[in-house]
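Team,

Forwarding the record for the chain on the shared tracking sheet. I've put the sequence and predicted structure together so nobody has to dig through attachments.
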Amino acid sequence: MSSSVLIAPDSFGDSLTAVAAAHSIAQGWASARPDDRLILAPQSDGGPGFVDVLAGRLGEVRTSTVRGPLERDVTAQWVLDAGPPVTAYLECAQACGLSLLDGPPTVHTALAAHSAGVGQLIAEAQTAGATRIVVGLGGSCCTDGGRGMVDALGGLTAARDRLAGVELIAASDVEHPLLGPMGAAAVFGPQKGADPTTVEVLEERLTGWAAELDAAAGRPVSEEAGAGAAGGIGAALLALGARRESGATVIAAHTGLERDVAAAGVVITGEGRFDDQSLHGKVVSAMAAAARGRGLPVIVLAGQVTLDPAAASAAGVTAAYSLTEHAGSVQRAIAEAAEQLCGLAAEVAASWH
């Protein structure tokens, strides 16, 4: 018996974009169940791939040249939707993402990387007529607290005045504050090349900057959930008047996810690692929540699965399958991500009824 299958994964880390993952899953599923109707709706939580996902669903893709994280100019894509309201969707990873470094992150890049290009993208979006600007946060290589972004907009006072009439949204599922043991430097700094000494230097820099942001906003924005997102760009956006929204929810709202779920008989989603964090605002949890209201089964295909089956079931996930187990090793799962995901999807589809 044929089904309507909604295929709505997040990216699989650096191995597959959400769009590529959706196509691999669809190819595999169709090979085993050719009569099923497939609905491809790749998702994002605001990190790398945020613009890529939106580009296929709404608006016009624009390209801008902005300062990269280490001064060399980079080409960044963003989406302008005619609305109303006229809305720009930006992705900080396009301007200061880890992938824009010349190699692996180092102590030097951890200290030198900045977010100026994000500010330039915001300025371009406003010049293009956007009265609503959504900034996807995640995947950055900088820990500058958004200072580069603010400076590119003319400084705190000028930037707040400039954006006073703009609805500014920080799209992120990161709940960390800017400072402290759960802050941007301590938690994410090591992933960006910072050793313990460098983490201390970054924390000291952020502490002084946090005082300026809090003073400009008139409230302790540095302590708010999401302030530590994207190396602290979240805090700077909050200080400029932004509100934080779940990146997964933003994507769902602006790509017709409710309509897609209503048309589906089963939902397939996925991500690089299915673990405890998956249940806190990530794409998988958003998909499970959307499906639960209609009593739909939810299948998770993930690079690795470490979440307890009972916890997954309680969250609304019917079954979860590991790409690493299917491939036989982490190395092969990464090196042959598209092919292995296609094979895993075919295997799951063949046993689905």
